[in-house]
Amino acid sequence: MRPLIFAICWRNKLLVFFSVQDRDMFVLSVHEAVINSVKAIKQLGEETAKKTFLLSLRITEEDVTVTVMDEGDGIPVKQLERMREKNLEDLLLAESGRGLLLIKETMDDIWLEHRENGKCAIAMKMRRERNE
């Protein structure tokens, strides 16, 4: 999945937008959000074939905003609490649960959006100025 996200970023000229380190962390954060979205859809079982996720990018001179929206059940409350209470270092060796913390610590801003149609979205922003 990460090569696909890297290719999307390459086609949209995002790779020249950030420093090499920030570029890699940006791709990794988007990868984690997409993987979480796919997992949420797969947990729906037989209904999976009918469900989709949407990846959107908004690019300005100042920043890049990525939104990953799916038709899963949203982020469990326990994961949201863990994201508020812990940092990535606390879960570095855990088998799972690092994705949201990685996104939180890598991106400049992160927020959740609950849509009227029942879809849930995670949005994240990385500013360009941090590299100049």
What would your notes on this structure say?
The chain is 38% helix and 22% strand. By secondary structure, it is an alpha+beta fold. It has a 4-stranded antiparallel beta sheet with strand order 1-2-4-3, with helices on one face. A hairpin with a 3-residue loop joins strand 1 and strand 2. It starts with a helix and ends in a 5-residue tail after the last strand. The mean pLDDT is 77.
Please sum up the structure shown.
The protein is built from four helices and four strands, in the order ααββααββ. It is of the alpha+beta class.
* Main pleated sheet: 4 strands, antiparallel
**How would the global form be characterised?**
globular
> What is the typical, i.e. mean, pLDDT?
77
Fraction of helical residues? 25-40%
Poorly predicted regions are none
SSE order? HHEEHHEE
Distinctive features:
4 helices, alpha+beta, 4 strands, globular, 38% helix, 132 residues, 22% strand
